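User: Structure please.
Assistant: Input sequence and predicted structure:
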Amino acid sequence: EKNYDYVFHIRNRKLRSEDNWSIENWKKLLELLDSDNVACIGTKGESGHIAGTQDLRDITLSETFDVLRNTKCLFGPSSGPMHLSSLCGCPHFVWSRKENYTRYTENWNPLKTKVLFDSTHSWHPSPQYVFEEFTKWIS
């Protein structure tokens, strides 16, 4: 089994596309994290992949569980894979609107998986901000 430092869910869906983070933001976050052990998950139809990461989109759900169980942290905006990470015990950094806070920290986190939920910039924090908040969180 492959263990990853970080996994990204680069949401690229057509529904509410204004909530998607740009590929440029993901590339910048990858650069700031300075790891060559990063993967991208999701479906090819609704999520992206960036160069320098392992493309794990469209792997089976069972394989996704294994990846998340062995990952140090998942990054992404509010989405199904972010909720799934709490059930796999995968620490995750999720950004969204403030009203989603209790979903991630309580209601949909029965195992009390470590989560950093940030709504300061809703769907669009800067990569630098995400990196700085993550660095403080893991210290």
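The beta strands are 4-8, 10-11, 38-40, 47-48, 54-55, 71-77, 92-95, 115-118.
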